[in-house]
Automatic annotation (TrEMBL):
It comes from the Bacteria. One of its GO terms (molecular function) is ATP binding. Keywords: ATP-binding, Nucleotide-binding, Transport. It comes from Devosia honganensis. Signal peptide: none annotated. Belongs to the ABC transporter superfamily. Residues 7-238 form the ABC transporter domain. InterPro entries: AAA+_ATPase, ABC_transporter-like_ATP-bd, ABC_transporter-like_CS, ABC_transporter_ATP-bind, P-loop_NTPase. This is ABC transporter ATP-binding protein.
Length: 257
């Protein structure tokens, strides 16, 4: 990890124009994300988390301020950014392997090396031997894991994840989190994860940003100083509990304010 800004948010704000008037979604927000960090963004529903992620990914424009990713201003989608949204959208007529290779296929012919990398990614996420299956033959959790492999196949330097595991049951989610921690350790991509789960945020991250109610702003920036290898046992540790307890009051307070 270097101390240089990998992503720099400089007074970034967003207001949506709607028929009913302007909707301020995000207050002027500044932050620096360093290379190799795993940063979770938590906050109450509607506080602008998805909006922030979409602006970083260049999917929507900022209303104010500037976002710089790897030294270049973001002003549209980029190849060096991978996305995973809630509810994986896989092509039903393509196999798991073909779905993972899709981002390559639209640019150039797929090579043996690409195929080997896809199989490697599927293996880390517990999907070895599923490459010939079709999406309908997979569980929701497996489909989400395929979409993570797809987001990583082009070797983006940064991964943006919007509640990718939100629809999964608690146990599946915990298992996937363990695999995802392993994947992050082996790739050391810079990851930004939007999640509603305090446990997931603490379990996966090196840092958690807490946002206030809409129009959101960052109200806390918490370093997660847990060992880099995260196994389910860590959830019961006093250190984990202390971190979760530091975040939880924001939700209670923000919910009743
Ligand atoms: N395209 C849009 N047009 C108008 N308003 C929008 C649009 N997208 C989002 N909003 C509004 O902006 C605010 C922030 O939305 P956003 O989806 O970023 O919040 P969020 O924190 O990700 O919410 P959640 O946790 O419920 O997914 C909300 O009030 C939402 O209604």
């Amino acid at each position: 990890m270097t101390d240089q800004a990998f992503i720099k948010l400089d007074e970034v704000a967003k207001t949506y124009p709607t028929a009913g008037g302007a909707v301020p979604a995000l207050s002027a927000t500044s932050a620096i994300i360093r290379e190799g960090e795993f940063v979770s963004i938590v906050g109450p529903s509607g506080c602008g988390k998805t909006t922030l992620l979409k602006m970083i990914g260049g999917l929507i424009d900022v209303t104010q301020g500037e976002i710089v990713l790897r030294g270049r201003q973001v002003n549209g989608p980029r190849d060096d950014v991978g996305f995973v949204f809630q509810g994986a959208v896989l092509l039903p007529w393509k196999t798991v392997l073909q779905n993972v290779l899709l981002p390559i296929e639209v640019h150039r012919p797929v090579t043996a090396k690409d195929r080997a990398r896809a199989l490697e990614l599927l293996d880390v996420l517990g999907l070895a031997n599923f490459e010939k299956r079709y999406p309908h033959e997979l569980s929701g959790g497996m489909q989400q894991r395929v979409s993570i492999c797809r987001a990583l196949i082009g070797d983006p330097s940064c991964l943006l994840l919007d509640e990718p595991f939100g629809a999964l049951d608690a146990l599946t989610r915990e298992n996937i989190n363990v695999m995802f921690n392993e994947l992050w350790r082996s790739t050391r991509k810079t990851v930004l994860l939007v999640t509603h789960s305090i446990q997931e945020a603490v379990f996966l991250s090196t840092r958690v940003l807490v946002m206030s109610r809409r129009p959101g702003e960052i109200v806390d920036d918490i370093a997660v100083d847990l060992p880099v290898v995260r196994l389910p046992e860590v959830i019961g540790s006093p250190e984990f509990g202390a971190l979760a307890n530091r975040i939880r009051p924001y939700f209670t307070k923000l919910a009743i304010d």
